[in-house]
Every structure is written in C-alpha cells, then in structure tokens.
Design brief:
Strand content: under 5%
Helix content: over 70%
Low-confidence stretches: 199-206, 209-217
Largest sheet: none
Radius of gyration: 20 Å
Order of helices and strands: HHHHHHHHHHH
Number of strands: 0
Shape: elongated
Distance between the termini: 60 Å
C-alpha cells in the first residue's frame, strides 16, 4: 500500500482494488470459476485482508452487484433529469433500464451470475435504490394525472417485475432485434396505463432519437 495513507484510506483502497478485480473476473469467466486467491493475485493483498473486507466470496459478488445497480440507477437519473414531464421521465427511465441488459459488461454479471448465486431477497435489497426511484416517478405521474392505476405500490412491483423479465430476455442474446422488440413491448404496456394516451410520444421522440421503421404501427 502507498505510504502516507491513513488506516481508513488504506482500507478503502484495498476494498476498491478487490471490487474492481472481482467485477472483471466475474464478468469474464464467472463467479464459480473465480477462486479467492485469484481475486487478490497481484494486488498486494492477503487473504486475511480480503476476509477483513468481506465475509466470503459471495459477499464480494453482492458488493459488485450493488455497485453495478447503483451505476444503472445513476445513469437513469441523469437521463431523465432534463425531461419536461413526469410521464416522459417514467417512460425514458424504464427504457434506460432495458438498455442496460444489452451492455456486454453487465449482461453476465446481472443476468447469469447474480441470480445464480444471490438470493431473491438479497437482490431485491441491493436494487432498493432503483426500486425507490421507480416508485417515486410513478407517484409523480399519478399525482400529475398522467398515469392511471388502482394502487401505486402494487403497480411499481408489477412494472419492476415486467422490466426485470424483459431485461433478462434481452440479455439472453446480443441480437439488437430482441432489444428493439423489448422496447416495443414496454411502450405497449405503458400506453395501457396512460391517461389520454392517444397520440402520445414514443421513446425515440422523448429522447430525440431516430425510431427504426416498423417499430410502431
């Protein structure tokens, strides 16, 4: 470790180094194929230091997934921040969530390794910030008279489950056609709940992008 660092700074640097290496290895070769010795190889970190930071290898994976989910939530916040209406924010945020499933650096981590080695309850807790953001945007859309639902919290769980299922479907292949179809399905689902949906803007209109021909009737 570099000299002149406080103990807290050394601890944080050690943790950061382990997480960066773990994220690379878990994404490249998988959780099961990665041993604890490989996690610390070349880092100047002992196994004792590893277990001082993390209870076990599974805890390392949980910490990696927590960081990935926080990054996705931060990206969604950045994409929806400048949008003019609560409906725009909700729709674009949902589409941004789907886009993450097509990222090569995230596909294996989120949709293969995480569900295989972390419990459903653990994953739900790690994704709490993302769920809270979705709930917040749904509440605002309902308050502004843009979204119709019999129960805000229940609809949040319903939409979150649909997004997770669609994202998992997208992540099974790198075919861009599947991602396009997923966006189309999401648009159709959201239109069912929009108040005054006739003539409503599509995702590409909201983001100023080009909508591929044939995506929508």
């Amino acid at each position: 470790m570099a000299s002149g660092l406080t103990k807290a700074e050394q601890t944080q640097r050690t943790r950061r180094a382990i997480l960066e290496r773990a994220r690379h290895l878990f994404a490249a070769q998988g959780y099961a194929a990665t041993g604890t010795e490989e996690l610390i190889r070349g880092l100047g970190v002992t196994r004792g230091a590893l277990y001082h930071q993390f209870q076990d290898k599974q805890a390392v994976l949980a910490a990696v997934i927590a960081e990935v989910l926080d990054e996705i939530t931060g990206d969604i916040r950045a994409r929806i921040a400048p949008l003019p209406s609560t409906w725009d924010r909700l729709v674009v945020g949902c589409h941004a969530c789907l886009d993450s499933a097509a990222r090569e650096d995230l596909r294996r981590l989120l949709f293969i390794e995480a569900p295989a080695f972390l419990s459903v309850d653990t994953l739900a807790e790690l994704d709490r910030p993302g769920f809270s953001l979705l709930l917040q945007e749904i509440e605002k859309a309902v308050q502004d008279g843009m979204l119709q639902t019999v129960d805000v919290e229940g609809f949040t769980y319903q939409l979150s489950g649909s997004l997770n299922a669609l994202a998992s479907w997208v992540a099974k292949t790198n075919d861009p056609e599947r991602l396009r179809r997923a966006h189309e399905l999401l648009d159709a689902h959201m239109e069912l709940h929009r108040i005054g949906a006739s003539g409503s803007p599509r995702r590409a209109d909201l983001e100023g992008g080009h909508q591929p021909a044939g995506l929508h009737p």
